[in-house]
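Hi P.,

Sorry for the delay on this. The queue was packed all week, but I finally got your sequence through. Input first:
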Amino acid sequence: MTGPGYSAGEMMTVTAAQALRDARTCFVGIGLPSEAANLARATHTPGLVLIYESGTIGARPGRLPLSIGDGILAQTADAVVSVPEIFNYWLQPGRIDVGFLGAAQIDRFGNINTTVIGADYTEPKVRLPGAGGAPEIAASCREVIVIVRQTRRTFVERVDFVTSVGFGDGPGSRERLGLTGAGPQKVITDLGVLEPDPQTCELVLTAAYPGVSVPDVTERTGWALRVAPDLRELPPPCPAELAVLRGLRATLPDADGTAAQGAAS
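Then the structure:
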């Protein structure tokens, strides 16, 4: 869905940035999570401390980084520490407020797959990039936000492989596994926002974007998605947010290596 003057992708990124309004520290991945976190820092949360897996703490990049190893992260960081320190001292003891993750597959309990597509791990249909630091982020950040475009191929009844645990098989799973973080508290898509039910831990549609109907969302979900009785319609992004986001996206190179011109979709 696209609103007047903005795309569904822009609405998704702005919504994810707004979810960081109360955060102080954020463990950031590359791609959509990095877009949203940098947008939040550039607009309503200037004090947000961005932490990247490569060991940069308090990075303030003037453009979107191309990878966790992009030099601009180290150049603009308050500190650069070793990867073991990031995980052992900052992440695992629960010192990071929010972890931002993407997903190739996500199921109704917020479990994430970024490893393989297909039932056979040894001979999958597709072998994905893998875990990276995502399992630790999902386990130990005080809360997790997932940002992913919504399709039936991505939103599945059961993930083919559990790379990062959400709520496992339901209530009590995180506790049995000894996971200290609260798990995924928001799944932000290009249609709306899903949040876990406090009793069942199953993802529930709690907010939709302007012009998006409940059938639009359920048709792109691989399970019988529940809808909150007080379903909200989120406001569209404001011109200032769109201007900053488009400015950030314009710094990304095109396929020929030159800076992109204009807004991305």
